[in-house]
Design goal:
single chain, alpha/beta, Elongation Factor Tu (Ef-tu), domain 3, Rossmann fold, tRNA binding, tRNA-uridine 2-sulfurtransferase activity, 6-stranded antiparallel beta barrel, SH3 type barrels, tRNA-specific 2-thiouridylase MnmA, 8 helices, 5-stranded parallel β-sheet, disulfide bond
């Protein structure tokens, strides 16, 4: 019987993933990654017990603090837009589950992501494919994960919709009480979370020509592309175009200035060779749930940065945010949006 290490939070997705794997004949080892002091280990144990599975707990609080929480804070300090869930998959969850393969003498790792793993003969490797549930599918969050992990990865929920999983898990006695929060370490909102780390200070809203149009109490409270909540009355709607943390300045302007048909990407993690990527129809997705946009050309620029020209404009590609690359439904990799020449 083949053994599977399953990332197990105890929530409905990991619970039903464990059930599918067990019913498929795998020896399932649910692993709870303790990331926060208040992580609910007891609830996860109860969830595993419903399936008569023993729960293994791995404490990764220090690693999570360094790789995800500190990264989140540092990016906002620099006026960037972080993507903690994507980075967590890359540097914590799948990384450490994969490491456990040898230690536990297991054959595969698994998670409750709504995505698929498929072997693509054309590229002679396993790649991630979009899941069945287009409203929920989570392939985007796997863009930064090393491709070698996909060779050992099982994603059973890729063939289900969220509604199907909820219904089937309830039938098995799972006490579903609603979805978990988006960012696991933030209880209220990101601004309140950041206040102990970034001092509030009066700053200015300015147009691109330097004209002052208002005041604010901290650049970190805003993100590129934001319109609502600026508190500025002006002759036309204003959008955040740029953050200048050194000067505590938020640059604003009309909507057409946040629309871009060229973006720059660095820290790129390709799942196939770049030369092969240039030969297939390519699309980018600049944030979770945004519509894919066709790439008209991509070329290496400099300093590890790629220049990506798009067939249509995208709204507010924010520096720091993750950009995922696809050909049709296949995920080919991802990287971080940056400014031209900034690496």
């Amino acid at each position: 019987m083949k053994k599977v290490i399953l990332g197990f939070s105890g929530g409905i997705d990991s619970f039903y993933t464990a059930y599918i794997l067990k019913e498929s004949g795998y020896n399932v080892l649910p692993v709870f990654l303790k990331l926060l002091p208040n992580s609910n280990v007891e609830e996860a144990k109860k969830s595993a017990e419903l399936l008569n599975l023993p729960l293994k707990v791995v404490d990764l609080q220090k690693e999570f603090r360094k790789e995800v929480i500190d990264y989140f804070i540092s990016y906002y300090k620099k006026g960037l837009t972080p993507n903690p869930c994507t980075v967590c998959n890359q540097k914590i969850k799948l990384k450490y589950l994969y490491r456990l393969l040898e230690e536990t003498n297991s054959n595969f790792v698994s998670t409750g992501h709504y995505a698929k793993v498929t072997y693509v003969r054309k590229f002679k490797r396993h790649l991630i494919k979009r899941g069945k549930d287009r409203r929920k599918e989570q392939s985007y969050f796997l863009a930064l994960v090393e491709q070698k992990i996909f060779e050992k990865l099982l994603l059973p929920l890729g063939d289900y919709t969220k509604e199907e999983v909820i219904e089937k898990a309830k039938e098995l006695g799972f006490p579903f009480e609603g979805e978990s929060q988006d960012v696991c370490f933030i209880d209220s909102n990101y601004v309140d979370f950041l206040k102990p780390y970034i001092k509030e200070k009066e700053g200015k809203f300015v147009l691109e020509d330097g004209t002052v149009v208002g005041k604010h109490t901290g650049f970190f409270k805003f993100t590129v592309g934001q319109r609502r909540g600026l508190g500025i009355s002006y002759k036309y709607p204003l959008y955040v175009l740029e953050l200048r943390p050194e000067e505590n300045i938020v640059v604003v302007g009309p909507k057409d200035r946040v629309l871009k048909n060229e973006i720059f990407i660095w820290k790129v993690n390709w799942h196939i060779d770049f030369q092969r990527i240039r030969k297939v129809p390519l699309f980018v997705q600049i944030r979770y749930r945004s519509k894919p946009t066709r790439v008209s050309s991509i070329e290496y620029f400099k300093n590890g940065i790629y220049r990506v020209k798009l067939a249509a404009k995208v709204e507010a590609p924010a520096p720091g945010q993750v950009c995922a690359f696809y050909t049709n439904d296949l995920l080919l990799g991802g990287g971080e949006i940056t400014k031209e020449g900034v690496g």
